[in-house]
Amino acid sequence: MKARSVKLKEAHKSSGSESTCSIIWDLESQHLVTSSTSDTKISIHDALLPAKPPKLVSHHKEGVTALALNPNSTCLASGSLDHSVSLYNFPGGKFQTNVTRFTLPIRCLSFNKSGSLLAAAGDDEGIKLIDTIDSTISRVLKEHKGPITGLAFDPIGEYLASVDSIGTVIFWQLSTGTPINILKRVAPNYETDTSVPNVLCWSPSGDFLAVPGLKNDVVMYDRDTSEEVGSLKGDHSQSVCFMSWSPNGKYMATSSLDKQILVWDVRKKQDINRQKFEDTICSMAWKPTGNALAVIDTMGKYGVWDSVVPSHMNSPLEGAPKPKSNGLDLFDEDTQEPSGSGSLSNVGESSFGEPEPLHKKRLRKQTEFDMLDEDDDGAVGIPTKAEPRKKASHIHKKPKDDVYEEVGSGMKLGRPKMQDAFQPGCTPLQSGKKRFLCYNMLGVITTMDTDGYPHIEVDFHDTGKGLRVPSMTDYFGFTMASLNENGSVFANPCKGEKNMSTLIYRPFSSWANNSEWSMRFEGEEVKVVALGTGWVAAVTSLNYLRVFTEGGLQKHVISLDGPVVTASGFKDELAVVTHSSCLPSDDQILEFRVFNFAKEAQAMKGRLPLTPGSCLTWLGYSEEGHLSSYDSKGVLRVFTSQFGGSWLPLFSASKDNPEDNYWVVGLNDSKLFCILCKNPLTYPLVTPKPFLTLLNLSFPLASSDLGANDLENEFMLSNLSLSQVQRKIEEMATSHQNIMPLEDKAFDIETSLDRCILKLIAACCNGEKLERATELVKLLSLDKSVQGAIRIATVLKLPVLADRFNCILEERMQNETTETTPFTKPSSDGFKAPNIMPVADNRRMEFENAVPPLKLPSPQFFKQEKAETSRSTVGKERLESNGSPSVEKIKINDLKVQGETNPPKKLMTIPEKPRLFGSVNKTTGKGNKSEEISPSESHRPTNPFAKSQNTQVKTSSLLDSIKKMKDGGKS
Predict the structure, then answer these.
(1) Partners of 139 in beta bridges
(2) What is the CA radius of gyration of the chain?
(3) How big is the CA angle at 451 (ends 446 and 456), to the nearest 5 degrees?
(4) How far apart, in Å, are the Cα atoms of 525 and each of 449, 501, 577?
(5) 775 φ, ψ to 5°?
């Protein structure tokens, strides 16, 4: 049956001459990436919407010669004729860095199985192995005598294969960087002509390496012996120039200089489909999730060949390994466990062990090609090998925690794995590199793992304090530390014959000599350490919480309910998180306890919430002393006393920047301090010095029909601030401390909250959400703010709503004059605002004593020609008909309506936005008889991160904007 012709369309313009082009799929088959040596731009095509214009990535100064995607398709690498290798995030295409440069053009690129190592080569005849974590050159491999045109890491992670333009193939051992076999003149010899590159590729299982042969065929070589085990030879009349394996390794597509593609059944050594093209196909990519093949020719035209494998045959996806789509962890068990042969997956991955020598000569195994010669019965599918491989590098042993156990019903259930204990602000061990033992808002503690004794250094972020701590020699191999203003504590895991763990405390200053002290725990390992005001704490493997004084006195030993996860200290409080149990979904159940050592009491206890499928990655306190947590899904939660003690989600990395990872350092009342780590890295490196990124805190709100999510978020954060400050005022008032600074702060937050509520009321009026606007008016703290809401309704020509606002204001004023209890805000519908403590602020008292309660008539909506007395009478009758007390006539010029409503002339000033965390409940504002509320001239508590400036806002400007929105549509 003749195959349907594949239609190609232009991806890159050609000057009329042939170019070397590249094409690759991403992991989920959602994007195609193409490039050409005649074009400086890289094109990212939407495979789901082919008609959509591609996204163009322009960085190179000359044509692009090679492309590569890391295994989880988050990082794109490109090589160019301009001698550079660049990295971009994917699929965004944003340029990240130039990782290396050559003296001659680049020809080929390849990522290893974890994406932590990138191999690059070209006309320089040398291969550079680049560590993508820190963009350093791990090793340079030199053995080729011609331009290198093809590179491929084996899927198991032990070898790198390379081929040059003169036909030499080399197998490299990654652990040593030496060639273990060199095959000369096995591929076509193009000498120095790089327009037709030699290529090679490993089978998905990693058992065979496919290389273009000298007889217009494809030759397979065994991975262990490097011996030829078979070939695919058919109707190609010229040399094979590209190959691509199907996802399951049962089929292969080959393109040739004869301008045709053949599709092979590898086991049968027969071509099962073919396609003829106008120009040579120079690159192909088998679709990872389907029966299709993406192709691009030497003129820059690309297309997708669907139904490559005939429908009556097995699918090319049958038996293929499922791709990982949830990101890539460079430090998973794959990359950390040494192989059975002793070789490492690569020189750039984490490894804790010395490689054993690899035997160059191995016994030749029986292959599928040999079996075919013995028994060619036409069976479909690749048979299993007669002799199993004697390698264990890619075979994972199940840990004891994950061993399946028999239960009474006969089913096998696995024991869920719980996360290990970790020290907040500590980064993983990296051989030969510096790492952080502690990183917090005060400073950092760094160390380097070397052959000798490493040096530990303590540095503070604020160098102006003049506090300098000399470095210390680490004789114990410390793996964790904690730091505060008074000193630092260090601990190591169990070591030595007695299996002993050591803890050392070093104060920064002391009146006595020899103030440093240490503790040793035989058969007991320190898991987490923490510091506070006058105390040092350590949690051990026996679930003991051990508390010491700063002088080294052992003061408390407390048994915890479960294995520790982490701990953090702040002043008198220590928060400890422990395991409770696991759910059937493998989600962890964690508990937290907060100890107050000054009162010798347990301040709080409860469950620690986590995002489903996540683990805890950071625990600490804000600058104001609020307990906070951060999980691996990027959600920050802060503990509050609201609702009897609750965790509030105040940040979500998935909404802010899902492509990168945030490593949390700390937070204050409005900002999250973290370090941005480029994917796939999840923690910062010591060098180059990381920079702190400040992110705004915000609730994960739903998409409101009002379209004012920013205002609603500000409203919720301000309410959170009020509750926090209220709690502080109550605590300080109980202990008879000066609460006036907090009361000033509370008043500022109240007025700022009123400003936000007024904006929300305006949005509700424009969106015809009048019931919601009425609810918001009842939350206003100041009478002047309610008058502003009445004016807003008047300007927007909503007489019924303005009348309701006016009734609410009258009711409030009547209650203020008659009630002597703390201020509340009742209303006709039963709504009641929170009680507010009376505030002993001189400005408030002067305002309340100087200005009698002000009552406003209902706003009128008829022409100005009518007499003032008539308007006053109508307003009086309306109020009396509603059951409200009659009031005297009051002139408000800015509420007069003549045809269209004129903007008000008087001013109402409201301080700027509040700061997060902390506040009191709402109280009545203060001022004088004028229509202004002046900001306080008294001293305010300063924020260490930002200066507060009180500003005046004209109500008339707000009304002008609302009027323009209503009448002209422009704000």
Answers:
(1) 129
(2) 36
(3) 20
(4) 20, 5, 17
(5) -60, -40
pTM of the model: 0.49
Q: Do residues 122 and 148 lie in contact, with contact meaning Cβ atoms separated by under 8 Å? A: yes
Collapsed DSSP state (helix, strand, coil) of residue 916: coil
Q: Is 477 left (phi over 0), alpha (psi -120 to 50) or beta?
A: left
336 pLDDT above the threshold of 50: no
pLDDT category at 931 given cuts 50, 70, 90 is very low
DSSP string, 506-538: EES--SSSS--EEEEEET--EEEEEEETTEEEE
Residues 755-808: tens digit of each pLDDT: 999 999 999 999 888 999 999 999 998 888 999 999 999 999 999 999 999 999
Of all residues in the chain, what percent are helix, strand and coil, respectively (each to 5)?
A: 15, 30, 50
CA distance 197 to 147: 9
Please write down the HEC assignment for all residues of 64-115. EEEEEECCCCCEEEEEECCCEEEEEECCCCCEEEEEEECCCCEEEEEECCCC
Which has the closest alpha carbon to 112: 307, 286, 271, 350? 350
Token reading at 212: 């273009």
Q: Name which of 513-522, 706-715, 731-740 the model is least confident about.
A: 731-740
Nearest to 659 by CA among 96, 92, 113, 117: 92
Q: Report the distance separating Cα 301 and Cα 931, nearest Å.
A: 72
Over range 632-654, report the average pLDDT.
Answer: 90
CA 833 to chain CA centroid, Å, is: 39
* DSSP for 480-497, written as a single string: EEEE-SSEEEEE---BTT
Q: Which residues, including other chains, have CB under 8 Å from residue 486's CB and lie 6 or more apart?
A: 507, 508, 531, 533, 550
**In the predicted model, is pLDDT for residue 935 greater than 50?**
no
Q: Inform me whether the pLDDT recorded for 373 exceeds 50.
A: no
Q: Is 53 within 8 Å of 24 (Cβ atoms)? A: no
How many alpha carbons fall within 13 Å on the CB side of residue 678?
20
Average pLDDT, the chain: 77
By CB atoms closer than 10 A (0-12, 13-18, 19+), residue 645 is exposed
Return d(Cα 123, Cα 149) in angstroms, integer. Answer: 8
